[in-house]
Amino acid sequence: MKICVLPGDGIGPEIMEQALRVLEALRGDDFNFEVETALIGGSAVDATGTPYPEATSKAAKAADAILLGAVGGPKWDTLPREQRPERGLLAIRKELNLFANLRPAILYPELANASTLKPEVVAGLDILIVRELTGDIYFGQPRGVREENGERVGFNTMVYSESEIRRIGKVAFEAARKRGKRLCSVDKMNVLEATQLWRDVMIEISADYPDVELSHMLVDNAAMQLVRAPKQFDVMVTGNMFGDILSDEASMLTGSIGMLPSASLDANNKGLYEPSHGSAPDIAGKGLANPLATILSAAMMLRYTFNLEAKALRIENAVKKVLAAGYRTGDIYEAGTRQVGTKEMGDAVLAAL
Ligand code: IPM
Ligand code: MG
């Protein structure tokens, strides 16, 4: 099994180190893997002048799965758009056709107080956001800034084809079928034609999934319902831009975005796995970052790409144990728990494994 490792920028390398220790501990006959490390994001810009160098593209294509830390930082924010670290992320998603982004938001009972919402609103929360990742306004043409009537006009295009909607819809219905059998599709059909098509296609697909209850919600209402009564949701499916926003919102229901893994899959379950959080330049290199989202991303990789469900569960149970034992990085710390750094958190997970 070939794993392409892309530590990236900021806290990326630190959290990746801990995830790799966890994977190493699980090495065995059914999980015999090699790692190829490559550059992405700002560190790739510094070394090669581009955020997604040819060598990285080659390594990513040759791998069965990709494990990514995080990209970006203030150092690169003023570069031309083509050279910004985020471009590396968008390029790898597009090139490898990783259209299905799965972002679970699970509240671990021990962290109920870390959420800014009342514990009774979030206790037991377990949502899966399925975000389309290679279409929509992120990639739509035309795009740009042009002169019109003596002023600058910025424009982007929201566009979805029926086949793009259908393939993400199927992923979402399948996921709902394996969970609580409820799927909420989020759109803005009262204003945007592209999302009227989204809704129509979701309704068409639902005929093949009579066991899954499909509902629809406008995105503004969905944003409101997520903080009002988040437990009403099981699986949510939405486009690239709405999914970007709603998944950040959902992450904070759980107390810390530092806890949330994600998977971005192609049609054959080749996947890119990364924490939902960013590169946290303010704490980079200090050994303070929470490695759990990356460790949990490695668990998702074992589940979705390598079909090693038992090993994925071992990692997830180890993380639960560590939280129950009171270990906390700064982002989830509260009085009465034990504050640890990145490496100590990794040590604790290894011990629990
Ligand atoms: C995410 C991020 C990216 C996105 C950025 C960094 C391009 O916010 O993965 O959610 O918008 O998709
Ligand atoms: Mg985002």
Q: Roughly what is the average pLDDT, rounded to an integer? A: 96
Quaternary status:
single chain
What ligand molecules are bound, each kind once? 3-isopropylmalic acid, magnesium ion
Q: Characterize the overall form.
A: globular
The major pleated sheet works out as: 10 strands, mixed
> What share of the residues does DSSP label as strand, in percent?
15-25%
- Helix-strand pattern: EHEHHEHEHEEEHEHEHEHEEHHEEH
Total DSSP E strands: 14
Show unreliable segments.
Answer: none
Q: Estimate the helix proportion, in percent.
A: 25-40%
Task: Please describe the topology of this protein.
Blueprint: E1 2-8, H1 12-25, E2 34-37, H2 42-48, H3 54-62, E3 65-70, H4 85-95, E4 100-106, H5 119-122, E5 126-132, E6 144-148, E7 151-155, H6 162-177, E8 182-187, H7 193-206, E9 213-218, H8 219-228, E10 235-238, H9 240-253, E11 261-265, E12 271-275, H10 292-304, H11 309-324, E13 327-328, E14 338-339, H12 342-352
Parallel strand pairs: 1-2, 1-3, 3-12, 5-10, 8-9, 8-10, 13-14
Antiparallel strand pairs: 4-5, 4-11, 6-7, 11-12
Bound molecules: 3-isopropylmalic acid and magnesium ion (MG).
Describe this structure in words.
By secondary structure, this protein is α/β, with parallel strands linked by helices. The protein folds into two domains: 1-99 and 266-353, Isopropylmalate Dehydrogenase (3-Layer(aba) Sandwich); 107-255, 3-Layer(aba) Sandwich (Isopropylmalate Dehydrogenase), CATH 3.40.718.10. It has helices at 12-25, 42-48, 54-62, 85-95, 119-122, 162-177, 193-206, 219-228, 240-253, 292-304, 309-324, 342-352; strands spanning 2-8, 34-37, 65-70, 100-106, 126-132, 144-148, 151-155, 182-187, 213-218, 235-238, 261-265, 271-275, 327-328, 338-339. The strands form three sheets. A ten-stranded mixed beta sheet has the order 2-1-3-12-11-4-5-10-8-9, with helices on both faces. Helix 1 packs across helix 10. The longest helix has 16 residues, at 162-177. The protein is globular, with a radius of gyration of 20 Å. It starts with a strand and ends with a helix. The structure holds 3-isopropylmalic acid (IPM) and magnesium ion (MG).
